[in-house]
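Convert to structure. Protein one:
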Amino acid sequence: MCYFVMSTPSEEVLLADWIDVTFLAYSDSSSSRQIYTHRKETIVHYQAYPPTQLRSAYKREDESSKELPFFKLASRVLSVSCSPSASSLRLNGVKNNTNTSIRKLSLAISTKRYLGLSSSLNRIASSSSSTSSLTPALRLSQISRAFSGTANREMPPIYDKPTTEKYDYIVIGGGSGGSGTARRAVSYGKKVAVVEATPYLGGTCVNVGCVPKKIMWHAADLQDKITNHAHGYKFTGIENAKFDWASFKPQRDAYIRRLNGIYANNFDKEGVEFHRGFGRLVARDKVEVTKPDGQTYVLTADNICIAVGGQPTIPSEEEIPGASLGIDSDGFFDLPEQPRRVAIVGAGYIAIELAGIFNALGTETHLLIRGDTVLRTFDPTIQEALTPWMEKTGVHLHKRTHVTKVEGEKGGPLTVHTDNGEKVEVDVLLWAIGRHASTKGLGLEELGVKLDKKGDVVVDEYQNSSVPGITAIGDVQGKWLLTPVAIAAGRRLSNRLFGPEKFKNDKLSYEDIPTVVFSHPTIGTVGLTEPEARAKYGDDAIKIYKSSFRALYFSMVDEEHKEPTVYKLICAGPEERVVGVHIIGLGSDEVMQGFAVAVKMGARKQDLDDTVAIHPTSGEELVTLR
């Protein structure tokens, strides 16, 4: 529950249970307290116990409060607090209605149950920081109006018990894949329940992956342009602009909470039941749900999908003493302030993206890799272009390096020891050495669901596990750990299970899946790498078309800041079918989508040659290669 305490409490009230937004109003004339908990369109009146016993609060019949609309109540409570005699706003132990308090209030609201409030409250905090005459009372009055606004939308209810004896489909995991398969199943008129252990729908991508990462990438890209490119275009006076991590974080987090709400609202609108709790298989057709308070209940369905995703891997203390002093990629999004020095261990796309963000924003960045190049599973052309550019732009690349020990304290500073005798002094150590499936505790092995040595669920081409009726999609099955792949696989799975006859053999093809890396510069790739193509078709059947150039954008930029652009086509057979496209350079992330369609359709080199170029663009290079 999220408490807005409108007068000084006799005991500290903390942000506790996330399920409901609660207004706790203290009376100046009495020690009595009332909690108003919003559910759907009405207010249900509760008698309050001390904060530690709030879970035991019981419903009181009070007709006078039942029909009071939520936002009217919010406005009334806040408006009363604007009176001269009212005490200052207190949120989670923060006294005085400061801008910091308002921002925390904004994040708390967005985190819990309502959309649209966060941006309004952030605007209030921002405007008041630049307006010294804005009184606390006026500030609270603005907050009151924000709550009363029509743009605010209520998030749907969360089911805490089975509402039917049996479901058609139970999905364990409320991420991108789980949401995709659940919503597709509901579109066929099926009864569907989604069980999610965390407070937030959307999975890794929405909460600690693609979306917040891309937002941070945009910030870093903007900093790079301001610092290194703007003066080339004769913009003056902005070269010293600096990124404010601490102020940006709550704004970014508020946006993510809004996305969580959109996921939940889509479930409610389409009829997917969302059950908050940890789901565990106790039988082939039964899922036990353990609620946050420890209570359990069982859901039943003939079809159960495992879509719990994965999580970052961190070495054990036995493997590397002090490893736990580091954070993982999830922890990146929890950093309250920008670190001055950071070491990242890993050479995959997560390590590369985070290193690029830190470096562009001005953090001293060390990247520790086991080999000589980054992105070793990508085409050699990509590796050869990106690795030296990262070094040139300031990333300290430690090649052929293994971490042997970490010393220091949680929160830094830290000393990272390597096998070649180096001691890297940093404030934050971030492990980006891979991910593993979140299958622990799901009861899979007890039911005979086969897992591979990494813990991934073994599935066939139709996403079936080794146990009939139990399927798996997304990161938990270990293939192509990408959000669009999980969504596509989930939708096709529901097509096959519940759709019309034409979909009885529907399945996802894992060939020619495009992907991008939000590095600096960005990378796009689809199809086979050159070594893969030569191994599959033979050297004589492969023809390579390649071009290196500078994007027009950099014509006005100093030479040292001109990013490389390299485009490569891999063609196979006498018809020169395009079996691989690999590009690095400005805008590659956007360019790749269209060419991925062409590769999927079996385009030949001649098809690209026959396409009229769009000029002047970088993308035109792919249809003019000779």
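Protein two, convert as well:
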Amino acid sequence: IFDLVVGGRSGRGCWRQKARLVSSTDQERELKEKQRNAEALAELSESLRNRAEEWANKPKMVRDTLLTLAGCTPYEVRFKKDHSLLGRVFAFDAVSKPGMDYELKLFIEYPTGSGNVYSSASGVAKQMYQDCMKDFGRGLSSGFKYLEYEKKHGSGDWRLLGDLLPEAVRFFKEGVPGADMLPQPYLDASCPMLPTALVSLSRAPSAPPGTGALPPAAPSGRGAAASLRKRKASPEPPDSAEG
């Protein structure tokens, strides 16, 4: 009997210890996620701040690609292995390091309407994989292989994001595929404002004369008004070209 009682107490002690470990791990994971989101928002803010002065210095292929892709935003993406996991691509930029070619950077909100921003397809795909499989240790080689985009909202025509943005396009070696591949923009009035607008409500998309609007795009007109009304009426719900 003594052994059973001690064993029972010991068992409860082990359970409590495991519970504390799990709780600590969850807290660490939540802290890392907050830090990651803050860094992504900082990247987005930097992109918005520098876009006008850097626009004229970008090669024509880069500018043309960014303008084409900006005209498609926002549009929905989902995880290939779990179609209930949805986000939305809302902005693009081109970044380069000294001596390196330009790379396409895309900004994705996931989950849709959450305000959580990812600055790479691989970052979103990894989080979706974790949400789907509850496997926090595995990384994904390329997010573009695991994300699908809807060509037109409500059409059910989902296509692989890697087909829209192959490596040659992401490194500005080739132009964006034809119009039959481009998604149509869709702004869900039931969602809060896009992160682009939240980062900088005072900045409207602009570019030097003759170049058109530099991405990222932000809601405007009735869409923006509807988003503002939505935010007032109810509270807001809770790495690069490689993918």
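The longest strand covers residues 82-95. The beta strands are 75-79, 82-95, 103-109, 117-118, 147-150, 158-160.
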